[in-house]
Structures are given as C-alpha cells and as structure tokens.
Design brief:
This protein has 374 residues and is an alpha+beta fold. It has helices spanning 8-19, 54-73, 93-105, 114-120, 143-156, 195-198, 200-203, 276-289, 339-352, and strands at 2-4, 25-28, 43-46, 79-80, 84-88, 110-113, 131-135, 139-142, 160-163, 166-168, 174-177, 180-183, 187-189, 208-217, 233-236, 243-246, 254-258, 298-308, 315-318, 325-329. The protein has an eight-stranded mixed beta sheet with strand order 6-7-5-15-16-17-14-18. It has a six-stranded mixed beta sheet with strand order 9-2-1-13-20-19, covered by helices on one side. Strand 1, helix 1 and strand 2 form a beta-alpha-beta unit. The radius of gyration is 20 Å and the shape is globular. The structure holds flavin-adenine dinucleotide. Flavin-adenine dinucleotide binds next to helix 1, strand 2, strand 3, strand 14 and strand 18.
Length: 374
C-alpha cells in the first residue's frame, strides 16, 4: 500500500496500516512535517472542547491516548499537559454544548467565573470575560517533532519511506513517483493543502486553502508566568473573532494566532512573510489580554495554511471513480490533534472497507465555504 503525504494524517495512516501487518510505502515530496506542510508548525493544541460536535471530542480523547504513548517513548516530550482554557464574553451555545458533552462523557471540564479566573491566572487580563472553561487533561503537541518521530518509528518498524513527488497514475492502483510508475493495492492521497492540486477537478472547489499567521513573543526575562507550568493553552472567542495561543514551550516564546480564515493561499508559492496588519492585530490582542507582554519583542513569525473543507469536517473517503485510490484531508485548522484517530479510520477503510462516519465523506463536502465546526 502507498500513502502519499507524510503530514500528520498520512503518517498516522501509514502507522496504522503497518500495525495491521501491511506492506506500506510512505511518500513525501519534501519530508515529514516540512516547512510548507500544515503539520510543520512548532506546536498544535489538543483539546476536547468542540461545542455540539461530540464526534470530535471523542476523537480527540482517543487520539490523546496515542499521543501520550508516543510521547512517553520518545526521547524528548511530544505532549505538554498544560491544560486548555476557553474564555467567553457571554454564555453561548458552544459553551453550553461543550459542558453537556463533557458531562455525558464524564470528562473533566472546570467552569470558572471571572474572580476565579483572575485568581488562578494573574498574568491574564480577564476584562470583558464572564467565564472560562478549563480542560486540565489536554495541552500542546510538539507538532513537527511528533510527525518526525512517528515516521522514524514507522521506518524502524519495517515501513518504507520515499522522497518523491507523486501524481495519480492511469488508474487508482498506479501512482507516478517522480515520473516512475508504481502500483499498489491501495493508494491513499493524504496531501493536505495540496489535495486540490492533485485532484483539481474534484477538490479544486471543495478544499479552501487559507493563509494563517502565527507569532511568538518573548516573555519578560526571569518571569516564569508564561511557562507551561503556570499558563495553559488558551482560546478567546473574542466576540466571534477567535484568538488562541500557547505558553512558552521549551523556551520558544509565547505563541499567539488568530483563527479567522485568511486570504486564499497557495502552499507552493504563497508569501510566508507576516503581514503588517496581521502582526499589529496579534500585538494588540496580546498586549490587551497579557499586559506583561506589552512592548516585549516578537521573536518569530510563521505563515502556514489551513486546508478547510466547506464546514470544517474532515475528508476520509474512497476516490469516487478510481477504484483503489483514497482521499484524506480537510484538516480545517483543527486536524492535528485527531491524527491518530483519522489515520485509524482511513486504515480501516482501506484494509477492511469499514466506512467512517458519513460526515467525513466526499459527498458531504460542499463548494460553499461556510465553517460550522469550531
Ligand atoms: C497555523 C496553524 C495552526 C493550527 N493549529 C492547530 C491546533 O492548534 N490544533 C490542531 O489540532 N490542528 C491545528 N492545525 C491544523 C493541523 O495542523 C492540520 O489539520 C494538519 O496538520 C493537516 O495535516 P495533513 O497531514 O492533512 O497535511 P500536511 O501536514 O500539509 O501534509 C501533507 C503532506 O503531503 C505532501 N504532499 C502533498 N502533495 C504531494 C505530492 N504530490 N507528492 C508527494 N507529497 C505530497 C506534503 O509535502 C506534506 O508533507 C493548525 C494549522 C495551522 C496551519
């Protein structure tokens, strides 16, 4: 079997197929979690809070067990359990539904009023926040390192890894690797933001690739209140214009990003320099919510891309006409944490024909970009 794409989705699919005893070749044009891949960032948040979309809470939970196992076996940590705090201006359905789902699944979720938030995280300014939801079991995944570790283990466990550009061949069982044909019983295309280029007619108007900007800020020298031991990962609904960020993991600095979908972006040619407007927005938000960061220098910027499906649901399906070919992607800015479960679902579809939930089907992917999964 061949898996094209060594991002988090492809790497976990290859891993699960190997666990099933299959011969697997994992192919990537640039390397596992490379600089242009969506999985190529420093860190990604793992959380179970998903409003009414319980399916993702369950997937995040199951995936977290895999991530923790991988982290325990890795020389350096892959998962930092610093917890995740959601801040709300007012009670909204998303919060109400998240509380109900966590109660149903018996998952810890602390509800804190403004006074409790202020007492617990004095480095944050909670003006305008009426309450918070805190998930203590979740936290940050060291994204690039995790995928590299996974691929190294895949190879150590007998998998084959090949660097090549792949293009679909004449049929679903053939793929062209740098122009040379290779056949396999199944070929999974886990090409992230490149999927619309690999299958332009089918996915060109169903996967919306958007530019997303990330910044790191140096906390005050000698101040440990921005370390993972003192600050959780956080997300602020901010009246619908959501910002999120991480404590300073491994000395990299406080990380902040805006979740609102940016402009259309080409993963090959897009300009990966931060925009002045984007940097200013991140600065303003950081200064307001984290007063001690005011005036502290930016230490790094990253421009990455989300590969959004119409509503934020993943794509895990067979190719509709090329028997033997499979489509995997649509991570939509929240896929990383789910890599283990997404990979398991794809591997079970390939190996046993077990179809995942209908919301992951190609048929549900519309051509109008209207996000509903948050
Ligand atoms: C800024 C940012 C913040 C995010 N934050 C979070 C978060 O906090 N939590 C979370 O869970 N998720 C988050 N995400 C989303 C998550 O990172 C993605 O959903 C996930 O990484 C997608 O993985 P993938 O394997 O589908 O794609 P990718 O990681 O892009 O992997 C695709 C791979 O396919 C290869 N490829 C493509 N075409 C070809 C070809 N023709 N031949 C050979 N190889 C090919 C590429 O080189 C690449 O390595 C974030 C994303 C971004 C951009």
């Amino acid at each position: 079997m061949i898996v094209v794409g060594a991002g988090v989705f492809g790497a976990w699919t290859a891993t699960h197929l190997r666990r099933m005893g299959k011969r697997v070749v994992l192919v990537d044009q640039m390397g596992p979690a490379n600089a242009r891949a969506s999985s190529g960032g420093e860190s990604r948040m793992a959380r179970g809070t998903y409003g009414r979309d319980e399916i993702y809470t369950r997937m995040a939970l199951a995936s977290l067990e895999e991530w923790k196992r991988l982290s325990e076996r890795s020389a350096l940590p892959l998962f930092h359990r610093h917890g995740v705090l959601f801040c709300f201006q007012e009670m909204i359905d998303y919060a109400r539904d998240s509380i109900a789902v966590h109660e149903r699944l018996n998952l810890p979720l602390e509800q804190l009023d403004t006074a409790a938030l202020r007492a617990r995280w004095p480095q944050m300014n909670f003006d305008g926040i009426s309450f918070g939801l805190f998930e203590p079991e979740f936290g940050g995944l060291m994204a690039r390192r995790s995928v590299e570790e996974l691929v190294a283990r895949f190879v150590a466990g007998g998998g084959e890894y090949v660097v090549a550009h792949a293009a679909p061949g004449a049929d679903g069982h053939t793929v062209e690797l740098d122009g040379a044909s290779r056949n396999a019983a199944a070929i999974v295309y886990a090409c992230g933001p490149w999927l619309p280029k690999v299958f332009p007619e089918m996915l060109g108007d169903r996967i919306f690739v958007t530019r997303q900007e990330v910044a790191f800020i140096a906390p005050p020298d000698g101040d440990d209140s921005f370390e993972a031991s003192h600050l959780p990962g956080w997300a602020d609904f901010n009246g619908g214009d959501l910002y999120y960020g991480f404590p300073s993991l491994e000395g990299r600095g406080f990380k902040i990003a805006r979740d609102t979908h940016g402009a259309v972006f080409d993963p090959d040619t897009g300009d990966r320099r931060i925009s002045e407007d984007g940097a200013a927005l991140l600065r303003t938000f950081a200064d307001r919510r984290f007063p001690a960061l005011a005036g502290r220098p930016f230490t790094e910027f990253r421009v990455c891309q989300y590969e959004n499906s119409s509503n934020g649901d993943f794509l895990i399906d067979r190719h509709p006409t090329m028997e033997g070919a499979y489509l995997l992607g649509g991570g939509s800015g929240h896929g990383f944490k789910h890599g283990p479960e997404v990979g398991r679902m794809m591997a079970e579809l390939v190996a046993n024909g077990t179809a995942p939930d209908a919301r992951f089907s190609l048929a549900t992917k519309a051509t109008v970009h209207h996000r509903t999964v948050l």
